[in-house]
Amino acid sequence: MKHVTIKEVAKKLNVSVSSVSKAFNDRNDIKKETKELILKVGKEMGYHPNPIAKKLSQQKTFNIGVIVPEFVNAFFPEVIIGIQDVFLKRDYQVLIMQSNESYETELKNVQTLEGNMVDGLIVSLSRETHNLEYFKSLINQGYPIVFFNRYNEDLHASKVIFDDFKWMFFATEHLIKQGFEKIFHLSAYQHLLLAKNRIRGYKKAMSKYKIEIEPDWIVETGLFLEEGDAAMQKLIDENNIPEGITCGNDMVAIGAMRTIKRNGLHIPEDIAVTGFTETPLVELVDPPLTSVIQPTHDMGETAAKLLLKQIENDSPIPETVILNGILNVRASSMKKE
Amino acid sequence: MKHVTIKEVAKKLNVSVSSVSKAFNDRNDIKKETKELILKVGKEMGYHPNPIAKKLSQQKTFNIGVIVPEFVNAFFPEVIIGIQDVFLKRDYQVLIMQSNESYETELKNVQTLEGNMVDGLIVSLSRETHNLEYFKSLINQGYPIVFFNRYNEDLHASKVIFDDFKWMFFATEHLIKQGFEKIFHLSAYQHLLLAKNRIRGYKKAMSKYKIEIEPDWIVETGLFLEEGDAAMQKLIDENNIPEGITCGNDMVAIGAMRTIKRNGLHIPEDIAVTGFTETPLVELVDPPLTSVIQPTHDMGETAAKLLLKQIENDSPIPETVILNGILNVRASSMKKE
DNA sequence: CTGTTAGCGCCTTCAA
DNA sequence: TTGAAGGCGCTAACAG
Fold it and tell me: What is the pTM of this model?
């Protein structure tokens, strides 16, 4: 892996390294013909400026880093595409790392990315992240960083988030308006801020319509299909059967639906169901699942633009952008006449 | 973003930079007590060796790069998890980039990754990649690189692939054995090698059982749901209705199923369906979809191990690993008694 | 316009 | 055991 260096090009042409540098950086304090000659010969020799060396002597890399907890669910990939769409256009490269929902891995991710001198970071916190010191110190040093989706209120940084409270309120209110009363809430990872906000939305809707919530109406699950199955099966086994459920995510909702049907119950007649963070699956299941669309692509774009602003104007005032969704009502939650 | 440098640590302690360097690289040509002192004070000062500088003077980064065409479908994310599982264990960091199925972006990805001096590359080619020169020159220079899933036969490099021929053969044969004869093949991106191999598998099965294929039995589609819809609808509109279809991917199969049902036809009685590259969806659709499991995680692990071998032993002999799958037969393809 | 030189932060001989 | 010095490849003053 031997690279042609600036020196070799210089020697070959009997010019100085700085001339070569100037030529390749397209500057104008160099005669046009020499520039062209250098460019031509340099390329022939297969010369590419070594970005590492460039980084070391400059302070800018035109790389930015993105850290997400996982990307098996479509949510994060879609956000990342939004991020890329704005950065690629501006000739930034986007490096992605996956924390696997582990705090330790996340920390290492941050460090290698920062160590690689990315110009800024976009991150969605891992489920496990408890210690925020490293992020805080980065932020204090003025390092450009924006959070999305999973953030923490103690972090004094820009973030783009979804109004989980409001949309879970709407989802719950929708079920109530359909005439359901005994509505349960299946919540994924309750310690996450977004889950807490969704619970608040659920509670708010219930209290608005004066429906008293029993403590066991809020059920903790994870993020996956099987966990929806298990939660639902448990309710059925205990003969504690709701008229409706609002779920913190589509997979859990779909798992619950599967279990409801397996037990001979009907959707929505016996139990109405809503999901959250709409995935393409909602149209494929039977009946089609009511869910809340999150503007994933937009979330990525917005985060990217916030970061860009920080990088380019280094404006240090953190901004928070709250994105809106859409409640997509489908058969899984509509009371039949 | 001011970093503490080796110099500052040295000055503070009145030692030389090389001593600090030695301490932080845990070498033994330094007295134990001084090493410990340096480490202690250095950490207190918040000193981290700057990886960029390190890279420049050493030749190893303990970073590896992965380039995939997309990761909205679960396939690539799952492979990446396999890759990470082997590298994280060995303290390598994995940087991921997405080519968006674009050759240009892919090329830039390779260049920034290589420019960041990753120790090696794992790549799955974009749909558009036609020009292989850059890859070839990297390979010629002995740069460690392994391909998976989407590769090109002109590339003299290690690769881990799936036996598309064999498993599409099995899928097709399975339909034939169920008693279907007029079997069509919906193929995604026919110019991709893997699609060609699947077509070969389909043809081989048909010819083995002496079923003559009409030219219009092989239909080109893309990768997504809607393309499955469209292809199926077209067949129905033309009243060219197959008894069975083998699809190049699950999404297309599911789209086709949706359209079949919408048109009042039944699966598998009227049309039997098989998918490929099994996704979690297969269990969710009605009827459950027969598909071929690809060992995604294993594919990632295998690719990672091949790369590691190249990096550490720099053995230049390219290896090809062909992975096996499983045909998971479900209701979508079983003739009812 | 061109070339010389001093860094960027770190590692690695090589003397002392 | 220590430290001085050169080098990794490039850029950015600064003279000429």
Answer: 0.84
